[in-house]
Amino acid sequence: MPLFRGKDSHGARGVPVLAAGERYGRGLPVQRPARRRAGETIRVDQSVSDRILQGRSRTVNRKLIDLVEFLFSKNAGPYLITFDVVFKDEATFEMVRRAKVFTKARIAKLFHVPESRILSIHDYPAGRVIKFNLVRDISSGDFGDRSVFGSQMWAPLISLEVPAERS
Question: Is the distance from CB of 22 to CB of 15 less than 8 angstroms?
């Protein structure tokens, strides 16, 4: 089967579909072109209509995963896990810090634990890092432990929403 290198009927690039008979065309569109109404031009700042309102500003919550350089968790002894959230730049770090995203109540809710299990929350501006410590429900390596080294415990932080600052 020859590799399809052309464009589909909409003018979009396609990826070959290795299906028997190729009933529905020669390529699978990667991204459909933007649709527009008759006589309307699409401007870049209007392509995401749910985020931009004509004449009014609106804040957009962003996911923490889009703002950080990396998320890290590790054991801090047999009963503690420490989490490091390292931001891409100083401005983003300051924005998240001002928004007070990392509070005991919010972290406890995110990890489904009581607030008393969040021992401390610290920020280190020199490293663009926010750190917090969580008490494990069982000892590291004990029967039923989900992550012996604590290195897989950062996953709930991915979905943490950070409110954008109004300009």
Answer: no
Q: Which domain holds residue 157?
A: 61-163
- Cα 76 from Cα 10, distance rounded (Å): 55
Does residue 150 lie within any of the structural domains?
yes
Q: Within a domain: residue 41?
A: no
Residue 55 lies in a domain: no
Per this entry, what is the length of the chain? 167
- DSSP codes of every residue in 135-159: E-SS-TTSTT-S-TTSTTTTGGGGG
Q: What's the domain count of the chain?
A: 1
Q: At 37, is the pLDDT very low, low, confident or very high (cuts 50, 70, 90)? A: low
How confident is the model over 54-69, as pLDDT tens digits? 455 556 788 888 889 9
- C-alpha distances out from residue 53 to 33, 42, 160, 165, Å: 22, 15, 24, 16
Q: What is the pLDDT of residues 84-102, one digit of tens each?
A: 999 999 999 999 999 898 9
